[in-house]
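Notebook, bench 3.
Goal today: get a predicted structure for Sporulation integral membrane protein YlbJ from Neobacillus piezotolerans so we can plan the truncation constructs. The sequence was checked against the plasmid map this morning, with no discrepancies at the termini. Length recorded as 406 residues. Pasting the sequence as submitted so the record is complete.
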Amino acid sequence: MFRSKIKTIFLAASVTLMAASLIAFPQESFQASVRGLNMWWKIVFPSLLPFFIISEMLIGFGVVKFIGVLLEPFMRPLFKVPGVGGFVWAMGMASGYPAGAKLTARLRQEGSLTRLEAERLVSFTNSSNPLFIFGAVSVGFFGNPKLGVILAISHYLGNIAVGLLMRFYGYDERMTRSSRHKKFKIREALAALHRTRIKDNRPIGKLLGDAVTSSIQTLLMIGGFIILFSVVNKLLFHLQVTAFLAQGVDFLLSSLAFPKVLSIPFISGLFEITLGSQLTSQVHEATLRQQAMVTSFILAFSGFSVQAQVASILAQTDIRFKPFFIARIMHGCFASTFSFLLWEPFYSKVGGSVARLGAVPVMLQEQSQLISHSFFQLALAGPLITIFALAVYIAILFKRLKRGSP
């Protein structure tokens, strides 16, 4: 009872302090809000919306069940999750945060995952997408497309390492469904696809409408969190809270022979990955290798902004948030370690010399530049896509309300 009262007082005091800060720093708060809004409607909304809609339709048509049966012999031994986890993993890497959490929650709601399986799966299927790593971070902040190769490899290898480690989570229940789908069976996969489609039984128009409304509702929630944490991060900086917390990081950075000036970008990145990555790129006292390691941790930890989005999504199910949070810390440590270990073979020896660019594989040259170009094209077309999608969403809601009215 006492702890509950202390928590109530702390939360009330925090919100009151935040409200007073908004009044004390109105211009800074407005600028931070606009920055978060621009990130959402230019990049996040148009990049995630197609993936969310297609994912909902794939689930409704039974394609995810089909994929799940086929991938069962691969996903179950490695990660102790059903085969549908392969679909969530792929979509999470392609579309970025928090697609993995949304799809995991969706599959949990329909009974395709147990709670332990869902908690394992969500821990390694939330990641940054290649567009953000190459376009925003490596090119936009560092002006170095080759750095994106290191960041991307470290990021995704770190996710795999987390998945392999989290397979031991809930080890006592490892035999719950371990005997199913031991062999690759295309006929069984097709049967599962058909059963799922018949069970859903929604017309295509209804299924598409539900997919659009559900996806946009989730993205509106995500936009709110992005704007909120953009403002919170700025206010914490002006209230000197960031500098105070950075003092605690100075000792850790000094022990690793990192410059102390990286502490404020690191703390900022714990709250919001975009600002943290941008500030890290501006620390000229650090080597590029040190900047890459800090940025890798920030991208993997994903920031409290993304974690709040995930927590909101998981709250709709019985999936616990704590394993996801612990996995983000592990992912950050793994990604930073991989950035350190792979620096010599992948950057210094392969991408560090302009004279040797002819020896660099196509993926390291052309694809990184293509992804970066796609990111900036998306930023230009993003607002139009967002406005159009919101107009469609309003039209669908109006139509449904009109049908439901007497």
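Residues 172-181, 352-360 have pLDDT under 50 and may be disordered. The chain has one domain: 22-404.
Flagging this for group meeting.
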